[in-house]
């Protein structure tokens, strides 16, 4: 029910040595949004309507709502373990990031982080060796 969760990479990838969640935290980071900084135009679009309110959401990834049936879970997914990440492309639940560079660019744009080109390269290099 929180509109915004301030944090860092460790907010979601908090378990020492493996970068997994210390506690379950499925969240919607916007990967399935049609306005995603990634190219999601090739993915199927699901239009979901809330039965009580009539609100409509269009997304490429209904996320945890497919399991729970809860409106509040639309788009929520569990973050991956970071260990061995470089060997598991494409990234995100819908496969919309083909490289680690795409992942870092997504986070930089989506969350207005403000990485310089060098900082983005440094984060990609870090993720590549986990």
Which stretches are poorly predicted, pLDDT < 50 over at least 5 residues? none
Question: How would you describe the oligomerization state of the chains in this entry?
Answer: single chain
Instruction: Tell me about the largest β-sheet.
Output: 2 strands, antiparallel
Percent helix range: 10-25%
> Can you count the helices?
4
Distance between the termini: 32 Å
Counting helices, strands and paired strands, the structural category is alpha+beta
State mean pLDDT (0 to 100 scale): 88
Supply database-style keywords:
130 residues; two-stranded antiparallel ribbon; globular
Kindly describe this structure.
- With 130 residues, the protein is an alpha+beta fold.
- 24% of the residues lie in helices and 6% in strands.
- The chain has four helices and two strands.
- It has helices spanning 9-12, 65-68, 100-110, 117-128, and strands at 46-49, 56-59.
- It has a two-stranded antiparallel ribbon with strand order 1-2.
- α3 crosses α4 (117-128).
- The longest helix is centred in the last third of the chain and has 12 residues, at 117-128.
- The chain is globular.
């Amino acid at each position: 029910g929180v509109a915004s969760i301030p944090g860092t990479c460790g907010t979601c990838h908090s378990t020492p040595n493996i970068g997994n969640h210390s506690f379950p935290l499925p969240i919607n980071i916007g990967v399935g949004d049609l306005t995603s900084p990634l190219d999601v135009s090739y993915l199927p679009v699901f239009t979901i309507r809330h039965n009580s309110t009539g609100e409509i959401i269009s997304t490429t990834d209904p996320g945890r709502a497919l399991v729970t049936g809860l409106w509040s879970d639309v788009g929520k997914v569990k973050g991956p373990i970071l260990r061995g990440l470089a060997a598991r492309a494409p990234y995100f639940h819908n496969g919309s990031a083909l490289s680690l560079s795409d992942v870092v660019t997504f986070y930089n744009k989506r969350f207005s982080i403000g990485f310089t080109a060098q900082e983005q390269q440094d984060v990609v290099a870090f993720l590549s060796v986990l």
